[in-house]
Design a protein that fits this description.
InterPro entries: DAP_epimerase_AS, DAP_epimerase_DapF
Distance between the termini: 15 Å
Order of helices and strands: EEHEEEHEEEEEHEEEHEEEE
Main location: cytoplasm
GO biological process, one term: lysine biosynthetic process via diaminopimelate
CATH superfamily of the largest domain: Diaminopimelate Epimerase, Chain A, domain 1
Enzyme class: isomerase
CATH architecture of the largest domain: Roll
Number of helices: 4
Catalytic activity: (2S,6S)-2,6-diaminopimelate = meso-2,6-diaminopimelate
């Protein structure tokens, strides 16, 4: 089993969705799932929702970024994590805009204020095979019973933001069965890559209260791609307009689904502390 080299890390967070960020320019960094879980463990490791590796870029890219969930699985995208590393790169380079290469494609992060970052998350995937689903369905409103609960009777919507999301529209997000339904729906056979599960309460045309059970991480304080997916899913059903403030446990994100199809996420980034991996 390979072992991560001793190297510095930063503990960062976006709305309390927290990350261990490792720069890999000093040497290869390709942790096993077991090693990721050890780093993410909040009792015996550093503790985080996701591990992020930041490598040098080329061909017009400021950095290449990899993300792992706390369960050790590498994933294509993380909205809050992208904001954090975008802010980190802008601070180190003095730029007001940086380009990041991820498994989900190139993302552009722009300085939006004091410790505020906007990220162009690209266009959402809306076709059933882009989510992906195991079989063809209308992703605007799934006609499949994923979990039996009185608050989850309305058909959920599905959106890919570089990672798969299903969004339930609920009467009260505070009372939604997040920890009960989340892990069941996450691993439902309809989602071959598993899925992030959102519970969205539409409070107005421009405001949504959201809780997210994240694939491989469980209930988190905030989920950036989940916020993007919730706005897109709501706007597709005309429950909201194309821009809204998303209220998450960790704070607020502003999401806009522009007319050109791109989703823009704006929110804070913060550094908690620095350390060194053993």
């Amino acid at each position: 089993m390979s072992r991560p080299m001793a190297r510095p890390f930063l503990k960062m967070n976006g709305l309390s969705n927290d990350f261990v960020v490792v720069e890999t320019r000093s040497g290869p960094f390709d942790p096993t799932a077991e090693e990721v879980r050890a780093i993410a463990n909040r009792e015996s490791g550093v503790g985080c929702d996701q591990l992020i590796a930041l490598d040098k870029g080329d061909d017009g890219v400021d950095a290449r970024v990899r993300f792992w969930n706390a369960d050790g699985e590498e994933v294509g995208a993380c909205g809050n994590g992208t904001r954090c590393v975008g802010w980190l790169l802008m601070q180190s380079t003095g730029k007001d805009e940086v380009v990041l290469e991820t498994k989900a494609g190139r993302l552009v992060a722009t300085r939006a204020g004091e410790r505020l970052v906007s990220v162009d998350m690209g266009e959402p995937g809306l076709a059933w095979n882009e989510i992906p689903l195991a079989e063809e369905h209308d992703t605007r409103a799934l006609d499949v019973a994923l979990y039996h609960h009185a608050d989850l009777m309305a058909p959920p919507g599905c959106v890919s933001m570089g990672n798969p999301h299903v969004v339930f529209f609920v009467p009260d997000a505070e009372q939604a069965p997040v920890t009960e339904a989340g892990p069941v729906v996450e691993t439902h056979k309809l989602f071959p890559e598993h899925v992030n599960v959102g519970f969205a309460q539409v409070k107005g045309r421009d405001r949504i209260r959201l809780k997210v059970w994240e694939r491989g991480a469980g209930l988190t304080k905030a989920c950036g791609t989940g916020a993007c997916a919730a706005l897109v899913a709501a706007a597709r059903r005309d429950l909201t307009g194309r821009h809204a403030t998303l209220e998450l446990d960790g704070g607020e994100l502003f999401i806009e689904w522009r007319q050109d199809g791109h989703v823009i996420m704006t929110g804070p980034a913060a550094v908690d502390f620095a350390g060194e991996l053993p």
